[in-house]
Model the fold of this input.
Amino acid sequence: MFGYIRPCKPQMKICDYETYKAVYCGLCKELSRFGFISRFTLSYDFAFLALLHLSVNDGKTNISRQRCMAHMLKKSYCMEHCEELTYAAAMMCISIYHKLSDDKSDEKFAKKIAALGLCGAIKGAYRKAAAMYPETAEKISEYMKLQAEIESEKCTSIDRAAEPSGLITAAILSGIPSCDENTTRILERMGYLLGRYVYITDALDDAEEDYKNKNYNPFLLQENCENCNMDEIRRIASDSVNFTLGELANAYVLLDTKRMKPILDNIIYKGLPVTFNGVVSGEKIKKTIKKQEFERI
Done:
């Protein structure tokens, strides 16, 4: 996940916005249980995972005012330690570790060196997270290998290229603890579609840069797209994402949400389309914690 699963803030009620921030800040603090460096991997995507987990469980959670490492002089609402935050933090550590491991093979020397250093720094967090959820960690590892194989063979099929991302996110969502069989099936379907959305949006976001650097990107291998014809690439991506988001909405309405529904509605029905349309219009999506840090007011 790369930061593409985010809310549409202008369309949120103040109470929902404050709850979202509390979960986001709570996830940041939960990451410290896996090591201080892990907090620098904070992502909107895994805040969504925590919200989704909270929505299908009705266990007790607490929100309190706490100080933040980024704003030490001001207390912010923050969700306290709970299973939902722990699972999201663990999945984030596992996913980021694999992403950094993949970056180690990057042709750009600076990116490779940075990935080597960060991968070593977060390895302990990965081991702790993988020990907590070994089955899901094993699935993610298996699908990451599949992703590498598909990219190494320069696969021209966008659907096949997006498959591992869908399977990884399906494994993460269906691995949410304490769900009944029906809920798990719905979450698995939602995860697969979200993974497709993220992969396609990211590939579109990176198309011009990949063309310049001669990196693999399935859009650049499509008919009439060899010379980075962005108009055609945007058209193909839009058709695929619109279909994917429609299917995601069909799966989401089947989910029995016990809480957080207005926030999830905002993300799925408004946030995802707005984020994708921003990429289509040429807006580069921010992916680092310094740029991505959710506004605390």
Summary: Residues 286-297 have pLDDT under 50 and may be disordered. The CA atoms of residues 182 and 255 lie 9 Å apart. The two ends are 26 Å apart (CA to CA). Residues 181-213 form the longest helix (33 residues).
